[in-house]
Amino acid sequence: xxxxxxxxxxxxxxxxxxxxxPEAPLSSLMANxxxxxxxxxxxxxxxxxxxSTGAPIDYFFGKEDPDVHEVRVLRPRIGKEDQTLADxxxxxxxRLFLVPDPFPG
Length: 105
Known about the structure:
By secondary structure, the protein is mainly beta. The protein has one helix and seven strands; from the N terminus they run ββαβββββ.
């Protein structure tokens, strides 16, 4: 199987990530990304877990809709079904955005 890469964008920083299992649920990919460390041993992205008001923050992948130039959130679950990159037609080399989503506590 050939390597599968995604360009992940967060706060004006773009990092190319190799996805070991492109068929994994989005929630697993996000968990791996949250704990990904660079060659310097530090976390690649700094994910605050709470916002300025103290509300917990969840993160989702988002993909730009080329027709309206708006980032659409890729929901990790629809009903009881875990969603994967394939469910959203994400391909090797695509650019995804990290979208913070504060939820009321």
